[in-house]
Amino acid sequence: MFTAANALYPVLQAKAVRMRSRSTRAVQVYNTSGQLEMNHESASFFSLDQAVKAIWPRTEHLLAETVAAAIAEAAPAADEAGVLSGSTVDLLREAGYFGLPVPAALDGGGASLLECAAVQRRLAQSDPAVAIAGNMHLFSVGMSVEHWLRRQDSCGLLLNAIAQEHLVLASAFAEPGLGGALLRSNVKATHRQGGYVLRGVKSPCSLAAHCNLISLQMQAEPAEPNGLMLAIIPATAPGIRVERTWDALGMRASGSETLRLEDCFVPDELIFHRCEPGFDDDQIFAAGLVWFCVLTTATYLGVVQAAIDATRDGLCQTFFGNVERAASLSAQAALGESLAGALSIEAACAAVAERMDREESDPRSLVPTALAVKHVAVDACIRAVEGAAELLGAKSYGRTGILARLWRDVQAARFHPPNRLAARQLLGKWALQLPFRFELDEP
What we know:
Layout: H1 4-12, E1 15-20, E2 25-30, E3 36-41, H2 48-55, H3 65-81, H4 86-94, H5 113-126, H6 128-151, H7 155-165, E4 169-172, E5 188-192, E6 195-205, E7 213-220, E8 228-234, E9 240-243, E10 257-267, E11 271-275, H8 283-315, H9 320-327, H10 329-356, H11 363-392, H12 402-410, H13 420-432
Parallel strand pairs: 4-7, 5-7
Antiparallel strand pairs: 1-2, 2-3, 5-6, 6-10, 7-8, 8-11, 9-10
Helix pairs in contact: 3-5, 5-6, 5-8, 5-10, 6-8, 8-10, 8-11, 8-12, 10-11, 11-12, 11-13
């Protein structure tokens, strides 16, 4: 029997699915046969796209879409080979990427921490491995900028050269056996006339084979006051050897090789910061730590965005099965759960960056919040990518699929110092107003 309910049934069963278009944003509604029933431009601001735009500044003028697209196109092959492409590094050089944080007064890009973080987020959507490699350069340059702003010394000449000559700076802080400590080094620095002779290993060191300069920390032996030292040296200095050792689960094309320092001489004039091993109350160290936490978090948020985009595109195909799945409440709830944690981190990360960019801010007061944001982001980002991949189904597990690569890449969020054991202990000591050091403190 034909009734009003029968007539309304196809309408009541219509499934609204938001589809991403490269040129426009539209709402497309399909009926249960998978046929397009309605298509109109969305004027709604209640969308993930608008939420992200409200949090992060526009950065196309800092990193062109054509550059991001070219890097994205090269990403699958680079991951397969496990090698950071020299042509990708050259592309970033030509785009002015490596000079982004350098102040305009020093002929750089003049980008704030907030803008650099937004660029990192976009770059990670194209290729997380390239973004995490570039992240190490940007944070070291950002720390040097903070040093120059406070000291107005010869560091400005270095920053000008980075911007004008498109120099790449590798951050050689990671070492075997540090256990997540921030202010320790197993690289031994023995004093000689006019400087120090270094022996030790830095690994992994992103951009090791592509850099012009190396930023590293070293520890005086025998011990001396303020014996932990930070220096920037030429990558061509005698006694530096790059070993191609990087073969990892994810971030395979980050160029994170091993640096061996064998009687490498560092002149006194290239040492620009000193502190006691384990502790530093200087604003420059605090500023560098905030830059690292913010940029690293933003990079992994870009990985999450790429995973959500891939999942949406996979679910919102025009054939019947996936349209049904994308329209199901369970699928929407699952993706919404992944998004909730990540979007909260987005807002927190941008807020810390914005506060850091204010001239009156003391970076030491921002360190607890920056560490907390990075700490929470590890679980939130990993869960978001894993949840998105699981929602798409077995298709996401294919070795050549983008989600399998993103799932591998996001696991690296666990390993950036300070690790979660050290970070949560630091936060607990601060909450209890106990003495602390920037490392895991176990009896």
